[in-house]
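From the thread on structure requests for the teaching lab: each student submitted one protein with a one-line request. Submission from student K.M.:

"Model Tripartite tricarboxylate transporter substrate binding protein from Advenella kashmirensis, tokens only."
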Amino acid sequence: MSIVISIAKRALAAGLAIAFAGTAQAAYPDKPITIIVNYPPGGALDLATRAVSANLSTQFDQPIVIENKPGASGLIGAENAARQKPDGYTFLATIDSLVTVNPLIFGQKRFNPETTLDVISLLGTFEQVLLVPKTSEIKDLSSLIAASKAKALNYSSAGAGTPGHLAMESLRLALGINMTNIPFKGNAPALNALLGKQVDTGFLALGGSTLQHIKAGKLIPLAVAGQSREPALPDTPTLSESGIEALKDFDMQFSFLLMAPKGLDKTITEKWNAAVAQAMQSAQIKTQFDNLNVHRVNGSMQEAEQWMAKYGSRIHDTIRKANIKVE
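Reply posted by the TA:
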């Protein structure tokens, strides 16, 4: 009898353990979540992340805390996130250049995102616009090409390996023209250099003050680097629409990524994919993203993988051909 009772007790204990485990898993999340943003507050990445996080907080019924940890082209915040437990309570919001660019131009001795972080989903995509000051003699792509042959041109960027730098180097390589990069410490000083005619041209992210200066007539948009025209600039053609054979397939776009410390449980990843997808359907998110000139995504892992494969290979090709390095 005692053996039977013992077996029954063990079975009951096992059943309770399974039930408890199921309840614990189903309860995720049961405490506040932190998303580290590896760039300063107020930028498009930060604002887009905060917009999505507000929606996710409602879905998860838990606070989501945003911590800005900028520096070293996003490496400081990324390293901090990678050191955390993969328990679903710490995530990283970053520009995709952390994965597609940094390991190639900075090397992997300090930090390798592929071995320390998992991509969860895209958080949005964004464009670069080719710009000149309003008083520039350059009025279109043809005159840009002609000017580059007549004199040495320079362009502003937010720094080595940033989207504007990569987009311009890709254009330079495609057209076979010479232009010199003048790197600044961020998008704002790169924009100010263009406004002040300290440089001839530049690719800048479309959003915030950049679009305001375009609408005010202080900057002239020549072309968009992506595959489709921007709704905010419907009369500005894409580079692929230029009629120039070398640019017929030109398409340089960039994205915001949601990442987690390596080894996050698949069920948590799937829960975040579904939650991001639901957030992207929100009318409020649409309005907020439209104001930032950030494009919404569907939130799936497959979408993120396809994006990284497509644009990552193009970026790698540009870095290799232009021999972009940071000493």
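TA comment: The chain has two domains: 32-126+254-322, 128-247. Strands lie at 33-37, 64-68, 90-95, 117-126, 128-133, 153-157, 179-183, 201-205, 219-224, 254-261.
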